[in-house]
Each structure stands twice: as C-alpha cells, then as structure tokens.
Specification:
Keywords: Hydrolase. With 481 residues, this protein is an alpha/beta fold. Helix content is 38%, strand content 15%. An 8-stranded parallel β-barrel has the order 1-3-4-5-7-9-15-16, surrounded by 4 helices. A two-stranded antiparallel ribbon has the order 2-6. The longest helix has 25 residues, at 205-229. It is globular and about 60 Å long. The two termini are 17 Å apart.
C-alpha cells in the first residue's frame, strides 16, 4: 500500500527548544527557562531564578523567534505539508494566570501561521509542550493544584478563538505520559523541586500522579470546548511511546514488559481515548499506595472529552528483565532503564535503533483504539559538524529515516490508519533530554553550540534533500533504496 495522496509529510519542533526570545515580546518566564545546559548526567541544574553564571539553552535556543520566515521558507522548499510546533504558554499569558493575554505574543503566532499559510503548510499545534509558566510552579506548585486546570483552559480558549481560522489540528499536551516518570516533575508538570539536578529531582508519586490527573481533566475540558464551539478542529493526544520487549521468553520477563509498557506507554492514551482510568492503573495505584482524588464531575468530564486522533513520538524500544543481575548490567537513559537488545544497533546516546518496532507500535495502537494516527516525532540525535563548504553529509540519518518510513508503509499495508509524519526535528534544536546542542536531530544544521556561541546561520543537510525527494514522490522514492 502506498502513502495516501493527502499524507501530511513534515517536520516538528517545540517552543522551549527552538523558539528563543525568552524575555522578548512580553513573554514571561517558563519552567524550561530555569533548566541550565550541560549533560543530564553531570552539571545540568534546575534553579529558582536565572543565574548569571549558568547558560540556559532555551533562552536563545536556535532562535525561531527571529528566523521564522527564513525557516518556514526552508520547510516550503523541502515540500512540507505540515509543521508541528507549540505555542509557548508564557508568551501568551506571562504568569499563566493573567486575565488578558499578551497581544504581542498572540501576534507573533499570527505571523507564524500566516507564513505557513503562504506556503500551503498545515500547522499542527501543541498547546502545552514542556513549558509551564514559572509563576504557576512557584505560587501553585504547578499542576498539583486544581486551579491550574482553569488557567490552562482559559489559555486554550484564548488561542482557539484567535487562531480558529488558521489552525485545525491541535494537541493538548506533549508526551503527557512523561509525568509517569520522575523527569516529569518539573519539565511537564511544573512541580516545585527546589534547587536540584535535572536527572535527580525529589519525587512524590502521590503528588505527581495527582498532577497528571489534573492534566487529564484539563485536556478533556478543552477537547469538549473545541467540540462545542469549533467543529472544524481535530483534537489529539500525544504519547511518548517506548515499547518494552522481554529480554528472554521467561514468563517473568514477559509479564514485566507488559506491566511497564502498560503504565508508561499505554496508560495516558487509554485515559484520553476511552475517557476513563484502565483497570491495571487502578491496581498499580493500590499497590503503590497512591490515591487519585476525583473532584465532583471529573469522571464525566473525562468521558466527554475524548480525543479525535492519536499522535505519538517514537525513537526507541527497551528490553527489560525481571532478573536484577541482568538489569543491573544493562544501560540506563531518560525514559526508562533497560538491557541492551543484542539484535539492535544503538546511537551514541544509548537509544536502540528499531525500525520494525515502529510497525509493531503502529499496529498495537491502532488495534487498541481504532483512531486515525500521526507520528509527530521520530528521528536520530547525532554529533555532527559542518564541512568547510557548509555541508553535512548525514547518510546515517537518511538510513535511519528510510528504514523507519519503510516500516510505516508496511503498517499502512497492514490496514493502519496513519495520516501524517513529522520528523524530529525540522531544524537543529536543543535536546530536551540532555540540554545539548551537540545532540543534533535536524534536517537543517544551525550554527549554534553548547557554549552559546554560533552565528545561527542555517545549512541544509544531505537529509534535507533526501526528504524533499521523498515528499515530492509521496514515498515512492523509497523504492530506489
């Protein structure tokens, strides 16, 4: 089966990793603006205020704020049908709880969407992508407070009204299931963690899962709002999907793999698609002594605010073992620990490269939900440099993308309803997981480095031209490999 004629090929980004202009145009401080650079295993810090002796990658990032016209023109040159981006909450409401929005912030995204329209590029917009306003963290303990539900719905209602004629594809929260991991405390939930390293945040699972519940309710409320007032909208969820394989065929390994995949990859999608908590989550909470407090009406809101389509990120698969000795000798990374899969290659950042796993994932998700799907993040992070001629010969990225997209085509032949794919990332941006520029994902190289230096000039990589040809032939150029 070939790709549908209206398939949404494109690229993806996130405001806190790409936009920059952190203190321009009336923007307020976001939690991401208080996470310093440096490797996540050594010096990367969460701070209460901006400190002069630390470098904060989100402050300039790769400066979409000043380069959006240039970048969108490059996307058009590549033939993008879609551009996935996020709106920075604190650019619209600087504290997150303001009554009136920041007009200069609203106008910035008007300009971005108008530029996309000029080239026939469909925006796919994430409402909240790891950018909780810092004020809400400091004064409300982020999403642990129910008040934040109303602040978020006010924000969403504002941008729905403003961009109702410019955006039709919306995603309520980026990788909402990040909250099932300790890393979600500050990054996605905005919980107060004090001065801490990025990787070693203090954790209270009760508080964390209660905050996640508030995000579920908020998501359902804005989906319900969109359905009532803007029937032209398509409202989606977004899950970081990391399949778990049993390391061996021992039943204990098989059981552990299912349990971990349920709670970390399936749980949030189950809530947002079916409108209720799944049975296995209730059992997990009982075992962990976690009690989710439902306010009156929460169950009804969840049931009424189910999403229209399902989006997810896919980078890797994990192998797990019930044998602590085997697990101890494996590798560990953000998103889960695991054992090296002997059948797979891995990146320099220990991510297992598994194209076939993408086909398995697509089939599993579609079998579970029977909803249209879009892959909104998929790519490979690699250290790379410009040649003297301003080129990047990234044959490894082309190979990675070709193999994964080929498995997407097979999933379509299996009968999966897949309507779009946006590469992570369209342009080099700051890595969310490591805070580094050297971990480059883009089709377009940006002259920016971990020490903050660089001209910010853009250079098309070999993969840019390869993807351009792929889009022009709607995937048929895969047959040339």
């Amino acid at each position: 089966m070939s790709f549908p004629t209206n398939f949404l090929w494109g690229g993806a980004s996130a405001a806190n990793q790409y936009e920059g202009g952190y203190n321009e145009g009336g923007k307020g401080l976001a939690c991401a603006d208080l996470i310093s650079g440096g490797s996540h295993t050594t010096s990367r810090q969460i701070t209460k205020t901006v400190k002069e002796d630390l470098l904060y990658p989100s402050h300039e990032a790769t400066d979409f704020y000043h380069h959006y016209k240039e970048d969108i023109a490059l996307f058009a040159e590549a033939g993008f049908k879609a551009f996935r981006l996020s709106i920075n909450w604190s650019r619209i409401f600087p504290t997150g709880m303001d009554q009136a929005p920041n007009e200069e912030g609203l106008q910035f995204y008007d300009n971005v969407f108008d530029e996309c329209k000029k080239y026939g590029i469909e925006p796919v917009v994430t409402i909240a992508h790891f950018d909780v306003p810092a004020y809400l963290s400091e004064h409300y303990d982020g999403w642990s407070s129910r008040e934040v539900i109303d602040f978020y719905t006010h924000y969403a209602a504002t941008i729905f009204d403003r961009y109702q004629d410019k955006v039709k594809y919306w995603i309520t929260f980026n990788e909402i299931n990040t909250a099932t991991l300790t890393i979600g405390n500050f990054l996605s939930l905005g919980l107060q963690v004090g001065e801490a390293t990025f990787i070693d945040q203090p954790d209270d699972p009760q508080r964390r899962y209660q905050a996640l519940h508030h995000q579920f309710v908020a998501s359902a409320k804005v989906v319900k709002l969109a359905r009532e007032k803007y029937p032209q909208f398509h409202m989606g969820c977004m899950i970081s999907y990391m399949p778990r394989y049993p390391y061996t065929c021992h039943p204990n390994d098989v059981l552990l793999a299912k349990q971990e995949e349920n709670m970390h990859s399936k749980f949030c999608g189950d809530v947002q698609v079916t409108g209720k908590y799944p049975y296995y989550a209730k059992s997990y909470f009982e075992q962990q002594g976690i009690e989710i407090k439902f306010a009156e009406g929460d169950a009804e809101i969840l049931a009424e605010g189910t999403v229209d389509y399902y989006t997810f990120s896919y980078y890797l698969t994990l192998c797990v073992s019930a044998d602590p000795e085997v697990e101890k000798n494996g590798h560990s990374m953000i998103g889960g620990s695991g054992v090296n899969n002997p059948y797979l290659e891995q990146t320099e950042w220990n991510a297992m490269i598994d194209p076939v796993g993408l086909r398995i994932t697509l089939n599993d998700i579609y079998d579970r939900y029977q909803l249209p799907m879009m892959i909104v993040e998929n790519g490979i992070g690699v250290s790379e440099d410009l040649t003297e001629n301003g080129e990047v010969h990234d044959s490894y990225r082309i190979d990675y993308l070709q193999k994964h997209i080929a498995e997407m085509e097979k999933a379509l032949a299996d009968g999966v309803d897949l309507f779009g794919y946006t590469i992570w990332s369209a342009v080099d941006i700051v890595s969310a997981s490591t805070g580094e520029m050297k971990k480059r994902y883009g089709l377009i190289f940006v002259d920016k480095y971990d020490d903050g230096t660089g001209s910010l000039n853009r250079y098309k990589k070999d993969s840019f031209y390869w993807y351009k040809q792929l889009i022009a032939t709607n995937g048929e150029s895969l047959l040339e490999k």
